[in-house]
Amino acid sequence: MTLTRDFYERPTLEVAKSLIGKVIHFQNRQLVITETEAYIGIGDPACHAAKGLTPRTAVMFGPAGFTYVYFIYGMYHCLNIVTEKEGTAAAVLIRGAKDMSANIYLNGPGKLCKYLNITKEHNNRDIIGSKEFHVVDKNLKPKIICTPRIGIKQGRELLWRFVAVQEI
DNA sequence: GAATAGATCCGC
DNA sequence: CGGATCTATTCA
């Protein structure tokens, strides 16, 4: 079944963890999520919204179930899904996934967005009720491990990266 | 206005 | 390990 806003409105760490094994439907493609990271505005120096609301981070303060897509390093986009209630800045970064039909592994947020042609056009979109982009629970239950997040300098002691161990 | 660091990836 | 190459944010 398709995930509703309630799913995303929970604590970010729970959402990040339970998104592993869920299936993204995007423009007729289906990707199993294999890797996520949690970013929480309050008390997380690595989060873009750590220093408060800016034009770029405004989406994260909005309601759960919206996309947050940003451009980084001059070449790559990263896809996030906003979590928690409106007013609380937090999101889950989709770092890795697998295309089920093409059997392609996408390890890394930049590659994932490039493969799906995700750009800033897709920023701040409500995925609840969207036909183009939504996430489905197929009752997969992969084994999950927690590790430090990738590519950040602050907040490395937090084990907020979730990776599927079992093959799916 | 200028400087700089950045939730990345690829090739050497 | 450095380059590609844009942008949001910070500093003067």
Q: What sort of overall outline do the alpha carbons produce when their principal axes are compared? A: globular
Distance linking N and C termini: 18 Å
Overall mean pLDDT: 96
| Tally of helical runs | 4
Give the C-alpha Rg: 14 Å
Helix and strand content put the structural class at: alpha+beta
Number of strands: 9
Task: Sketch the topology as an H/E string, one letter per element.
Answer: HHEEHEEEEHEEE
Q: Low-confidence parts, pLDDT < 50 over ≥5 residues?
A: none
Q: What amount of the residues lies in strands?
A: 25-35%
Query: Helical residue percent?
Result: 10-25%
Largest sheet: 9 strands, antiparallel
Describe this structure in words.
The chain has four helices and nine strands. With 168 residues, it is α+β, with helices and mostly antiparallel strands. Strands 1, 2, 3, 4, 5, 6, 7, 8 and 9 form a nine-stranded antiparallel beta sheet that branches.
List strands and helices in order, with pairings:
Blueprint: H1 5-8, H2 12-19, E1 23-26, E2 29-40, H3 58-61, E3 67-72, E4 76-82, E5 90-99, E6 104-107, H4 109-116, E7 133-136, E8 144-147, E9 161-164
Antiparallel strand pairs: 1-2, 1-7, 2-5, 2-9, 3-4, 4-5, 5-6, 8-9
This protein binds a DNA duplex (12 and 12 nucleotides) through strand 3, strand 4 and helix 4.
How do you describe this structure in short?
This protein is α+β, with helices and mostly antiparallel strands and 168 residues long. Helices cover 14% and strands 33% of the residues. Strands 1, 2, 3, 4, 5, 6, 7, 8 and 9 form a nine-stranded antiparallel sheet that branches.
